[in-house]
Amino acid sequence: MEKPIRILIETAATGPVAAVLHPDRCPRTVAAIRAALPITGVAHRWGEEVYFQIPVQAGPESQLEVVKRGELGYWPAGNALCIFFGPTPASRSPDEIRPASPVNPVGRVLGDPHVFGKVQDGEEIVVKLAQD
Fold first, then answer.
1. Strand pairing partners for 75?
2. For site-directed labelling of 5, which of 56, 73, 102, 108 has its Cα 20 to 30 A away?
3. Which residue, among 117, 37, 26, has the nearest Cα to 70 in the 3D structure?
């Protein structure tokens, strides 16, 4: 069952962004993320991806090498949560969204993920359960 979350970014223009964690593909990773909420991190940009380190250590689980726009992925290599909204430097075409290395798919953004294009390196980002 999907778990509603909110992603809050320091950039006032974006406001809170609704998203969901979906444990069906990566139940161990999603359980670890959910147990760590709320999470506060420092945003980094890599092409059209925002990622930030989180206090979760999970191994590979149902990993993807290419993701969809709006997908949330856990990157085991960097203990980071990634928000994908377009091509990255690793993408092989303008239509492909490719992480630096495989990610565990853990959720998705509801609505337009392009709002993350306003996020700058170094901004604070918070992920919490929707009812918090």
1. 80
2. 102
3. 117
Cα of first residue to Cα of last residue in the chain, in angstroms, is: 18
- Domain that residue 123 falls in: 3-129
Report the run of H or E that residue 27 belongs to, with start and end: helix 27-36
pLDDT at 60 over 80: yes
How many domains, the chain? 1
Strands 104-109 and 17-21: antiparallel
Beta strands in 27-90 (DSSP E): 39-42, 44-45, 49-53, 71-75, 80-84
Q: For the segment 6-51, what is each residue's pLDDT rounded down to a tens digit?
A: 999 877 566 789 999 999 989 999 999 999 999 999 999 999 999 9
- Domain of 71, CATH number, reads 2.40.100.20
Adjacency order of strands within the sheet including 49-53: 39-42, 124-129, 3-9, 17-21, 104-109, 71-75, 80-84, 49-53, 44-45
Phi-psi region of 14 (alpha: psi -120 to 50; beta: other; left: phi over 0): alpha
